[in-house]
């Protein structure tokens, strides 16, 4: 009896398909944003029909919000992992989280996804999701460092500057303005 490709193919669960869609969606949304990304491109990258994509994520907005959550969860988890060995040492925890964030910024899809989430915040549901996720990151930093508000604000301000510098490729330049900004970042918060 001859085996056909369809009889030997392993069927994926809906949760596995959701994961495949998220993985496929991240680079699309990162590069083209919420408004510029067609769901047909995401479906094609995930190897499914657009109709099936919409069975798992009923709207493009829900899919985008799931990508936002995925990216912000990654930041939060990296902060927890980085700070864990430094429990009780606020300065060391901040240094480790700063290094972890700098490493995350090397992932261009992660970096651009974060920026795209802010750009799409004109949509109320997206804005609400970004606010909630960002708040959870702040809460995580507070929890793992025990730092006062001014130190947490300084950490996030430095992170925002690093995000912008990474997005524009400032590390590729030897301009005085880059040296001015980078010189003040010898030690992440």
What does this entry look like structurally?
The chain is an all-alpha fold. The chain has a domain at 59-168. The chain contains ten helices and no strands. Helix 2 (14-36) crosses helix 7 (108-119). The longest helix has 24 residues, at 60-83. It is globular, with a radius of gyration of 20 Å. The model has no long low-confidence stretch (mean pLDDT 91).
Summarize, please.
The protein is an all-alpha fold.
Which percent range describes the beta-strand content? under 5%
Written as H for each helix and E for each strand, in order along the chain, the element string is HHHHHHHHHH
Low-pLDDT stretches are none
CA-CA gap between termini: 67 Å
What is the radius of gyration? Answer: 20 Å
What is the mean pLDDT? 91
Class derived from helix and strand content: mainly alpha
**Count of alpha and pi helical runs:** 10
User: Helical percent range?
Assistant: over 70%
Overall strand count: 0
Topology:
Layout: H1 5-8, H2 14-36, H3 39-46, H4 50-56, H5 60-83, H6 90-105, H7 108-119, H8 124-145, H9 149-167, H10 176-183
Question: Which terms summarize this structure?
Answer:
189 residues; mainly alpha; 10 helices; globular
């Amino acid at each position: 009896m001859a085996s056909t490709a369809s009889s030997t193919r392993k069927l994926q669960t809906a949760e596995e398909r959701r994961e495949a869609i998220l993985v496929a969606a991240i680079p699309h949304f990162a590069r083209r944003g919420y408004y510029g990304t067609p769901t047909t491109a995401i479906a094609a990258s995930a190897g499914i029909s657009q109709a099936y994509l919409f069975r798992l994520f009923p709207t493009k907005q829900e899919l985008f919000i799931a990508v936002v959550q995925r990216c912000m969860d990654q930041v939060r988890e990296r902060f927890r992992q980085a700070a864990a060995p430094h429990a009780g040492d606020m300065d060391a925890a901040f240094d480790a989280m700063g290094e972890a964030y700098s490493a995350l910024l090397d992932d261009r899809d992660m970096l651009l996804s974060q920026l795209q989430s802010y750009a799409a915040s004109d949509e109320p549901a997206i804005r609400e999701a970004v606010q909630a996720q960002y708040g959870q990151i702040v809460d995580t930093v507070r929890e793992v460092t025990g730092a006062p508000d001014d130190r947490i604000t300084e950490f996030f301000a430095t992170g925002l500057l690093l995000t912008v510098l990474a997005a524009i490729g400032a590390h590729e330049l030897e301009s005085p303005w880059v040296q001015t900004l980078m010189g003040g970042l010898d030690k992440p918060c």
